[in-house]
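Structure ticket #2291
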Amino acid sequence: MSDSLLASIVISSYNYGRFLRRAIDSALSQTYPNTEVIVADDCSTDDSREIILSYGDRVIPMLREKNEGGDANYNEACRMSRGQVIFILDSDDMLCPTVVERAMPHFHDSDVVKVHWPLWEINVNGRKTGRVVPCPVLPEGRLREAVARNGPFNYPSPSTSGNAYARGFLEDTLPLPRGVYGDSYVCAWASASGTIRRLPEPQGFYRIHSRNTYAKTTFDQRLKHDMTHLNICCTELSEYYCEHGMKVDTEVWKKNSWHWRVHRSVEEIQEIIPPEDTFILADEDNWGTHGSVAGHRALPFPELDGYYGGHPPDDETALREFERLRQLGASFIVFAWPAFWWLDHYAGLRQHLRGAFPCVRENDRLIAFDLRTEGRVGGEKRGSND
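Resolution: structure written out below.
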């Protein structure tokens, strides 16, 4: 394999000193020899800068004087780096030592704009949780026409640490507009711009912990940001396709997106559940509500110490947990689409719900039952596919 291409690994650092050494060490441990490591620190107040400087000339420090947010690292990655291929690593994540070596050969094809790979999910202590994110098999190829039909949000893509980009593509795509998620925005443009290649096996580690930016924002705040991001991406990409003589329907794009489906589901929850009522939410913790949805207390199903407790082992456990949460004051139960299969798998729970409580909403996003009057079935069932 030719190692003529230079790879730049840009580490995004902000107050993650407890994890930073492992991130830097993983970047420095690459089996691909022609690699530079840049550590961009966004005015950390912990010991991150001392850690960065302790590596001497093994890394290139980029120490900002003003906090600009993690997305600024995308905007500065090209300015600070020299590589023809750029990897951006979050400082609470890690890379496998072979990732650069395995990704770089794909970039000898000038049409390749991105190479991506799945990530092992790890906990705060660095232990694998058993999950691979976002999914074991990622899309690849030239997706431009498929994106024109279905939108850029229909194709799973890893978070920041699961991607490598051709320098020319990043120079054409950056700077990031305000209001977008950097990794999602860049990945959306990649899917419309050129060829994407995948590495089949996980080549990095995505850490889940209480200080993740994702974990620190409320569900309602994140949903608002999601919709801003969605609208910006749809506007910019539709203009790009129009310039290239291709007609697209951004309303179809939006309806195909995860962001829109959650947004519309929340609107429906507000329509059917009285203000401030508590409800049970079965979503396999995919929405990340942190127990609150649009002013409603949302009890995870099942619940363990305030958090999602995982799949019930059997029907009896599911029924018992349902009754326990109902006794805590839940007036509705809502199944979001990631958990629709539960109503097939837990047949006793399904029979109890459909036999004892009115189904007040059923469509391809959610199924909701009113628990306020047991035994009153046959009430209005309102469905919506808007």
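Closing remark: The chain is about 35% helix and 25% strand.
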